[in-house]
Amino acid sequence: LWVDPEGASIDGQDVFSETVHRGDWLYYGKGPEGGVSNSTGTRRFTEWALPNDSFTYVGGTCRATERSPGIEIGLGTRDKFYVIDTDGHADVVKGLKGREIWLWIGALVAIAAGGWFSINQGLRQDITLIDVAIAASVFLLIWLIGWLVNIRNTARELENRVQQAWSLVDVQLKRRYDLIPGLVSVAKGSGEHEARVQTLVADLRAGNASVVTEKYPDLQAAPAYRKLMEELTDTEDRLALARGFHTEALSLFRTHMEKFPDGVIARFMGIRSTLLE
What we know:
Helix content is 60%, strand content 13%. By secondary structure, it is α/β, with parallel strands linked by helices. The protein has two domains: 2-87, no CATH class; 152-276, de novo design (two linked rop proteins). It has a three-stranded mixed β-sheet. Strands 2-8-5 form a three-stranded mixed β-sheet, with no helix packed on it. The radius of gyration is 30 Å and the shape is flat.
């Protein structure tokens, strides 16, 4: 699996942290060569990285690539979320939800502050409580619309991810289908009986590349057959990976649509996908 880090929010592990003074070689070795005016004579160096063999969570868009195994995760054209993190999925999602909650709290505080300011001004400038109530209602209506739009957009984005994942599966299925005629042609050219050729076709369409290799060892002598079988095996690996992505994306979408009230609201706003059946 390839990961393109361009555009990702990367949060690694701290692997180096040192506070040094002028007598330490790091002070000028890693910092500015000359002195800095009004300097305290203290510098702090930190370094973070994604250590080898460390568990890394990657959240982004899957797409097809020509490099084996044919799947890549990167920043999508419409992505708002692309993260590479050494924390687990639960911790990353928890952090994102925490930020979202604080944004909503900030919006409510702003509304309350606006109402308080309006009341104070009303006491001085003949603004009635009805005016304040209308202003507060407008603020709340805007907040409610934003919340509903966010629910619908989240559901639609998860649905699109399922469709994108299936497109990866579809690409590999077509690739496998295109390889079968070449393998059949080689088998016929080697003088294989028609019944064996039909069995070969059935095994190939079922995706049993390893079974085909065991059943027809005599065909391995043909260079063209070996090359096609290598491509078929590579395609099967890509297909298995793509199906895994599709299963995960579908599970996330269905889980989201089962939540209350998000799922009910999303359905009411037109998200009635056949993926939920």
